[in-house]
Amino acid sequence: MIKILPTDALFILMTLSFIFLGIAYRHDPSLQRIYQRIKYDPWALWASLTFSIFWLIALLDSIHWIHLSTPNGMVSLLDVILQPLSQVVEKSYSAPFAQVTFMPVMQHLPNGTWSSIQVPLLIDKGLAPRWLLWFTEWLAGVGVSTILLAWVIGYVSQPRGCAWRIHLSRLLRGDYSLPWRSLYLTSLCFCMMLWTIIVYGAHVHIFGTDKIGNDILVQVIKSIRTAMILGMVTSLVTMPIALILGALAGLLGGWVDDVIYYIYTTLSSIPGILLIAASVLSLQIYWYNHPLGAATPMARADLRLLALCIILGLTSWTQLCRVLRAQTLKLREQDYILASRVQGVGTWGILSRHIMPNLLPILLMSLVLDFSGLVLAEAVLTYVGVGVDPLTPSFGNLIDGARVQMAQTPVVWWPLSATFMVMLLLVFAVNMLADSVQQALNPRAPH
Predict the structure, then answer these.
(1) Do 3 and 74 form a contact (C-beta atoms < 8 A)?
(2) pTM value > 0.70
(3) CB-based burial of residue 405 (10 Å sphere; 0-12 exposed, 13-18 middle, 19+ buried)?
(4) Which among 10, 98, 169, 178 is positioned nearest to 410, based on CA atoms?
(5) Residue at 211 is within a domain
(6) How many helices (H) and strands (E) does the chain have?
(7) Which residues form the domain of 388?
């Protein structure tokens, strides 16, 4: 039976909303500028493809159904896809691509004695004898991906009546205006990564295992959903509050501006980490005294994730509100705003027709820029103990676990390294996409 968690419903609703808005406003000049900027900029194209793949992973992990045989009481579509990687649990740590345990364990030998040795892993250990077969499979996957991508690119960009030989030479020389080489290389890299996981993931632990023998690669992939939900749901809470209060304060002025200014100045004067920690701890005490009746541990962890998103949204809208208020103060002195007042247009009419549309580019930029900050904020909050539930896969929980592992001897370095690489890829892609959107919406920027 399908089980829809609150964050699942919000994330799926956001996905459908973005698709609907993209179709409905596909002819909007602002969206057209963004689309053209991304289409002709290799870095922006790479960032958009990377972010789309992260979004798809989070979407697959947001489709749950009840499965009582699992520890969490439910399973997602991503869990089914990753089952070949997660079904083998080792005894303890193992390094990436290793065939034996990282630390020696006491083993009972056939002669009746005990010895400290590195025992073979439970996962298929045939990498060395069958490396040629696996390399051939990997090479075949890369070849198939190359052929498919070349066919798609040729189908889209090949002029009518142009031979494939001529088209290929033009493509390699970069004669076409679209950055097909960047698109091809980005898609090919992701296909190679996917095929490597498929081929090697069932035979070796690509990123190693943790203390209790779970695969690090699975944990890192499962943490993407938490980062995406924190970034997007928190923005859904922040943006309406900042937009309404900032626009009203800038347009109306007077005592309304004074009250709103006092509110966000007071909140800004409180250290953010202390305010968030106090809110989370107070909510935990309330839940302890008033159980919400969540049926499974995963449902309770999801409620805590949703509460953290709301708390982050309610405590982080002040800076955006300040920017929107300043922009509204500038807009209300424009001639078309004054003309609308003379013609008898009311406050809400001016807000909906003139103020809000001019503030949307700032909101869009804030959404993209704040996303990476929220991903890093979750890691810090979970590290200090006021973030997501320990049962929720997240980058913060992985970093918190790696803190002890990095201090021991020998050093277990791969959990932190794997988390760092995936976080860097996500945050870098978001920042590159934000820079491209900012350039597209800036009328003074070269296009």
Answers:
(1) yes
(2) yes
(3) middle
(4) 98
(5) no
(6) 18, 5
(7) 216-429
